[in-house]
Structures are given as structure tokens and as C-alpha cells.
Amino acid sequence: MKLEKTPGGYALYKEKTIIGTCQARPTEQGAEILDVYENTPASEAGLKAGDMVTAVDGMPTANMELEELSTLVVKSGEESTELTIHREGEDDFTVELTSARINVKHVEHFLYNHHTGYIRISMFSGNCAEEFREAVKDLTDTMPRAAAVISASREGAS
User: Fold this and answer.
1) pLDDT > 90: what percent of the chain?
2) For the stretch 144-157, what's the b/e string if a residue is b when 16 or more beta carbons lie within 10 angstroms of its beta carbon?
3) What is the model's pLDDT at position 156?
């Protein structure tokens, strides 16, 4: 884990092998991509939030367990994964991605207006609780009487 100074405060990172997306639990249509992380194989391939992953290496994702989807998508080494994507208003297409070892921010925090501590949680997995405690401690050490605003997103990162 790594603490890095950002323009507005600090961000905690955990290095992880991923393609760089956050998916919703698959439905009958497939797995919707909720977020695409910057500077990842998924962002470089042009994937977007709202895209639907309908197959992984030819295997349909409809009603698949989220854990199974993550296992299929993230591979070790130089092995690539082929995703079939449905994007509203376009023909379905495939992208080939190779997982990369990148730093994933789970918790970001900064002091806003000298009175309000802002904490953003992007995933509730890994060391999120520890990262959150460290963010609260850093904000309270900086400004003991600051109020906190917490923002969270849905999880399912791959």
C-alpha cells in the first residue's frame, strides 16, 4: 500500500492486477461496466461506463456470479482476455485486454474549505477499512474539528 500526495490531499493506493473496470453484478443482459479507471488496459481500449460485458472469452456473462466474472476477466502473466461488449446504439464489438499490475485507489481524502474533510471510497474490498481509518486519522490530525463528508460507490472491480 502506498500513500501519495495529490493536489487536494492524499490518496491511498493498493497495487493489484486488473484490467481497470468496476462491474455491476451480472443480470440477464450481462455485466454493466459502472466505472473505468484511468490509465488501465480498459481505458486504453476505449471501454466506457454503461458498456455491457456480454461474454468473456466466448462465455456468456448473463446471470454469472460476480466472483466468477472477476476470475475469468483477470488473468496472470501475459495471458489476454477477450471481452464482448454491447454499447447502446452501436454494433457489438470485442476487445482483447491483458491484465496489468496497477495501483488502485480505494480511499481518497482532502480538506475542503479548511472546515470539511472529504473522503471518497471507490471500493469496499481489500484494505478499505484500514485505508478509511488512516484517512480519518490524517484529516483529524490536520483539522481536529473538521466535519466529514463521505462518498461511496458500488463495487465489483476487475
Assistant:
1) 30
2) eebeeeeeeeebbb
3) 47
